[in-house]
């Protein structure tokens, strides 16, 4: 209920700010969410150079007028992105599970349900689920071509040493 309220408030805020919001259909969604809160649309295996493990995406809504979108990203245990640089700010809200977030040359931060972390434009970072727990994010961002510059993979030895 709390998560649905957050989504509704975000949509209302965007509408009040003049965004032309297009809600995405939830029809034909899998009834088995495997412990995740939101239904999923696309499951992608790890793609070399972007992330390792399995991640599921569900587009919540888009605004064609302002090129804005919200989607959920559901990380299976042990899934992590490569280091990357976003070309504009991105807000990540952890709605389920636990994981990690790190900016280049800064300590790793543990994140859990209810936490928000912001990836600022031009800041190199990575994020991923805990070794033995799933993590589900609501991601708020502007969309378009080439928004992410993918860098090197996160060092597996360093990731495995995280508690």
Structural overview:
The protein is mainly beta. The protein has one domain (2-160): Jelly Rolls (Sandwich), CATH 2.60.120. It is built from two helices and 13 strands. It has helices at residues 2-16, 156-160; strands at 21-23, 42-45, 51-52, 54-63, 68-75, 80-81, 84-86, 90-103, 109-112, 116-119, 124-129, 135-142, 148-150. Strands 1, 2, 4, 5, 7, 8, 9, 10, 11, 12 and 13 form an eleven-stranded antiparallel beta sheet that branches. It is globular, with a radius of gyration of 15 Å. Residues 1-5 and 15-33 have low confidence and may be disordered.
CATH architecture descriptor: Sandwich
Radius of gyration: 15 Å
- Could you name the ranges where pLDDT drops below 50 across 5 or more consecutive residues? 1-5, 15-33
Q: What's the β-strand tally?
A: 13
List the helices and strands and how they pair.
Layout: H1 2-16, E1 21-23, E2 42-45, E3 51-52, E4 54-63, E5 68-75, E6 80-81, E7 84-86, E8 90-103, E9 109-112, E10 116-119, E11 124-129, E12 135-142, E13 148-150, H2 156-160
Antiparallel strand pairs: 1-4, 2-4, 3-6, 4-5, 5-12, 7-11, 7-13, 8-9, 8-10, 8-11, 8-12
